[in-house]
Amino acid sequence: LSPVSGVVCQFGKIESGKILQTKGHFFSLEELLTSYLQSHFSQFVDGDFINLYLSPADYRRVHMPTAGKLINAIYVPGKLFPVNCWAAENIPNLFSQNERLVILFEGESGPFVMVMVGAMMVSGICAKFTGVVKTNSGIQEFNYQNLPIIYEQGAEIGHFQFGSTVIMLFPKDELMLIDNLGTGK
User: Fold this and answer.
1) For residue 81, what are the contacts with CB-CB under 8 A and spacing of at least 6?
2) Any alpha helices (H) in 1-99, and if so which ranges?
3) 79-104 burial by CB neighbour count: b if 16+ within 10 A, else e?
């Protein structure tokens, strides 16, 4: 289940800790996740990713792609560059430079990360468990590991106040991508 009604910009393997931003341009998984998730970093180094772009005209609510327990979230302050196709092709390390809310879940088949990336004119990222996160207010960590916060598949977990981007990260062999012939790869 897609977490948003946006456009899939990129998807594929995270290769040696690098994620494809656009043709020929990569950004670092380590910079995207920040040092706060370093204990989970190795699980995603050779995993899979999906980058979904939401235009200002799209439905900007974010939903759970699968059921999962909320473990923690980290708000990382940053730039507010646009996240459209032009920006992805021309701004190096775009998604690890922009402000973002990095959310770690434990699903039925293992952990997964959802990154809500802020952008120009977003004016805020809002999650059900944090409320509106004040733009560039400093790093904020929200630890829910010992709380029984579980979201069912399809449940709304947050929204953007304008268009933006959601990046999903999965450990190696956790995500089956479907090719255009309908077979798993």
Assistant:
1) 87, 91, 94, 97, 98, 119, 120
2) 29-33, 38-41, 85-90, 94-97
3) ebbbbbeebbeebeebbbbbbbbbbb
Residues 6 or more apart whose CB falls under 8 angstroms from that of 146 comprise: none
Amino acid at 47: G
pLDDT one-digit tens code per residue, 88-109: 889 999 999 999 999 999 998 8
Question: What distance in Å separates the CA atoms of residue 170 and residue 121, rounded to the nearest whole number?
Answer: 29
Q: In 40-53, which positions are buried (b, 16+ CB within 10 angstroms) versus exposed (e)?
A: beebbeebbbbbbb
Whether the full predicted model's pTM is greater than 0.85, yes or no, is: yes
Segment 116-131, tens digit of pLDDT: 998 887 667 899 998 8
